Amino acid sequence: MKKRFFLMFLPVLLFSKNLGVEIGFSPDSFNKKFLDVFYEKDTPIKNLPTYTTLALGGWNGKYGSGFAAVGEGIKFGDKLFIKCDISLCYITHTTPHLSTHYQFKDRIRVGYNFNENYSLLFGFIHFSNGGIKKPNSGENFFVMWLTKKF
User: Fold this and answer.
1) How far apart, in whole angstroms, are the C-alpha atoms of residue 89 and residue 91?
2) What is the pLDDT of residue 15?
3) Residue 120 lies in domain
4) Across 13-150, where does the E strand assignment appear?
5) CA angle 129, 135, 139 (to 5 degrees)
6) pLDDT value at residue 135
């Protein structure tokens, strides 16, 4: 199922403006690894530097899960920059920290544009259902991104 879902979105990812891979780990356990593939498209709203993002990925471990997410964000800065976004997310497995399949995925990243094509970013991701249903302590990950613009 996870492979079919990923293959369904592969053409979108391959032809996107910004294609990236996020890798990371949980601050609770270095054994819980995080990976996703995402794309971002600039979608300015009233001259604000906003973007739309789509991500497919997951994390391993005893309470591992896959996810698909779509959201909106804003970018501040150019060469050295900060990006913040929030996405609606579906996770494949609930955990003791996430009691529903529908979640919010919050990201904050600090990045550097090496040139017009490549960026490197470091940041933090938090999954939570926003208190809709307990338990809801969330899942957290420190991550690193490499982005290639096409």
Assistant:
1) 6
2) 53
3) 2-149
4) 18-25, 33-42, 50-59, 65-77, 80-91, 102-113, 118-128, 139-149
5) 60
6) 87
- Number of domains into which the chain is organized: 1
**Are 81 and 111 contacting, i.e. CB atoms less than 8 angstroms apart?**
yes
CB 124 within 8 A of CB 26: no
Mean pLDDT of 82-103: 95
pTM of the model: 0.84
pLDDT at residue number 20:
81
- Which residue in this structure is represented by tokens 């001259």? 47
pLDDT value for 1: 43
CATH number of the domain to which 26 belongs: 2.40.160.20
By percentage, how much of the chain surpasses pLDDT 90? 62
Question: Residue 71: CB partners within 8 Å, gap ≥ 6?
Answer: 52, 53, 85, 86, 87, 88, 105
CB 43 within 8 Å of CB 52: yes
Q: Rounded to whole angstroms, how far apart are CA atoms 103 and 97? A: 11
DSSP string across 47-58: TB-EEEEEEEEE
